[in-house]
Specification:
single chain, mainly alpha, Ferritin, 12 helices, 66% helix, 2% strand, binds Phenylacetyl coenzyme A
């Protein structure tokens, strides 16, 4: 007679057979907590990620660029909201997640703690930051948790548009005046290494990767995705007539990949632990927006309560 499978074995069997886990299915508590951690960090990243770009909406160089930037930033708000909704299906409330962000307890992507100093930084964010985000997020469309995987399909479609508009705006600068070309190269120099770091710690220093791969939350390791990103950008940068700020970047015939230089992990962990160039500014902006929006939440709640009362009275 076949032995009865434990809940854990049934769960892993579904994962091994590419069957999605849905909110009402049994799941190990650690799987639930890993997803809450990753999805909420991702949602916070989208929301905080609006700030460096929002900085340039009033200063975009043309109406066309302003309209594109506005739409992009609004997409990011939408991505944050989908992702908060996906995390809510795991039993955490939105208020708890906001609390974790505003208290500084929750992480969000290191990349958004760097400043956008010139207009070219906005193009570089599109090309490099959205490019890195897509590289990491396309495999997440096939992750094992249904609501997260479905949200990622929509997010990735929009992000690939974001990446292309970023590259296109840099291409325009690359054909511009010497000052514009200089501005472009300087933006690439600023955003390259933070984008390479954005994939997270190297595989031997990534505490969550092995288990997340087993659960098919992650499909590729941090280093595998980082390498793919470097390989693509090393070619794309040539079209811009620019260079990546890495003297060790070199095509390796034997591996079929680009070799690249040492990552400054000290800088990465400093930024992750709150000491990057803009961490304080970003969290202050987020907390202020939350506090200043209190009257809107109060008014909406008062309106809903009044409506409920009116409906109860007319039904009586
Ligand atoms: N920044 O063991 P691992 C975007 C933390 S959205 C800060 O490798 P895991 C859209 C990690 O949380 C960008 N912290 O962890 C946009 C963990 O800390 P914990 C966000 C980081 O989870 C574009 C610890 O290090 N995308 O860009 C970072 O298996 C343009 C150990 O690391 C996502 O969130 C980092 N870069 O792998 C918006 C995608 N990396 O929790 C505006 C979903 C690692 O133990 C403009 N997330 N840490 O305290 C993921 O794929 C994964 O969570 C990883 C990290 C790959 C980020």
């Amino acid at each position: 007679m076949a032995a009865t499978l434990t809940l854990e074995e049934v769960f892993q069997d579904k994962i091994d057979n590419e069957i999605r886990i849905e909110p009402k299915d049994w799941m190990p508590e650690a799987y639930r907590q890993t997803l809450i951690r990753q999805i909420s960090q991702h949602a916070h990243s989208e929301i905080i990620g609006m700030l460096p770009e929002g900085n340039w909406i009033t200063r975009a160089p043309s109406l066309k660029r302003k309209a594109i930037l506005l739409a992009k930033v609004q997409d990011e708000a939408g991505h944050g909201l989908y992702l908060y909704a996906a995390a809510e299906t795991l039993g955490i409330s939105r208020d708890e997640m906001y609390d974790q962000l505003h208290s500084g307890k929750a992480k969000y992507s290191s990349i958004f703690n760097y400043p956008t100093l010139t207009w070219a930084d906005i193009g570089a964010v599109g090309w490099l930051v959205d490019g890195a985000a897509i590289m990491n997020q396309v495999p997440l469309c096939r992750n094992s948790y249904g609501p997260y995987a479905r949200a990622m399909v929509r997010v990735c479609k929009e992000e690939s548009f974001h990446q292309r508009q970023g590259f296109e705006s840099l291409l325009v600068l690359s054909k511009g005046s010497p000052a514009q070309k200089r501005m472009l190269q300087e933006a690439i120099n600023r955003w390259w290494w933070p984008s390479v770091m954005m994939f997270g710690p190297s595989d031997d220093a990534s505490p969550h990767s092995a288990q997340s791969m087993k659960w098919k939350i992650k499909r590729f390791s941090n280093d595998e995705l980082r390498q793919k990103f470097v390989d693509i950008c090393a070619e794309q940068v040539k079209i811009l007539g620019c260079t990546l700020p890495d003297p060790d970047l070199k095509w390796n015939e034997a591996t079929g990949h680009y070799d690249f230089g040492e990552i400054n992990w000290k800088e990465f962990w400093e930024v992750v632990s709150g000491n990057g160039p803009c961490n304080k500014q970003r969290l202050d902006a987020r907390r202020n927006a939350w506090d200043e929006g209190q009257w809107v939440r109060d008014a909406a709640s008062a309106h809903a309560a009044k409506r409920k009362q009116r409906m109860a009275t007319s039904a009586a």
